[in-house]
């Protein structure tokens, strides 16, 4: 892919970030007195940014040198999302966790999850419209791919990978709550990049039900049970497991929350997959 094509994609994603930032700022100014509508719109705009940018990033996986360029873009835009979307979860699993722990009401949590899936659909429609214009090289033929399945392993292994990644990610989010925000965003971005590197060629390493639907809606239409099991149920189950055992086990046994323990488990798991 030519450098010009990469530049066009970066310009498009930057435009999305700027537009979402303006929408979030306008929402804060005008709708503070309407908490439910405010929460819905802010979550919708934020999730739209992540889904739209990730849809575009999915077209840049073959940019040379591989996979360094794709991983660098993943890290960079994850940091950018973290800095510009503070206060939003943009992930149904991240919303489910405080709901399960009683820190968020069922009504507000359901409202945010609805906003996330609405944003996922809107982002997909928007990006398909942009791709149909074929104004940049990465967009040529993007709409003819159909179900470009990210699942390159067995259904059971894909389920376990997305479950494991969801557990690791949610644990990292909980453990980093006390970290300075300007460092925390880089730690989370580094973790996401590492997970994408470790499992991206097997499942896409998505662990976000709304993002998975935005990226691979055609696959959900063709194989709904299989994809809902891997990309919806597995991440949600991982989140529930973390929320259920965090207060009872991890706080009672601090050594189990040591990140080195989880790195050891992940390394051994992928060594097992390769044998």
UniProtKB/TrEMBL annotation:
GO cellular component: cytoplasm; membrane
Protein known as: Aquaporin
Entry keyword Transferase: no
Stated family: Belongs to the MIP/aquaporin (TC 1.A.8) family. AQP11/AQP12 subfamily.
UniProt keyword terms in alphabetical order: Membrane, Transmembrane, Transmembrane helix
Membrane topology per record: Multi-pass membrane protein
A GO MF label: channel activity
Main location: membrane
Membrane-crossing residue ranges in chain numbering: 6-23, 113-131, 156-174, 186-207, 227-246
Subcellular location: Membrane
SUPFAM superfamilies according to UniProt: Aquaporin-like
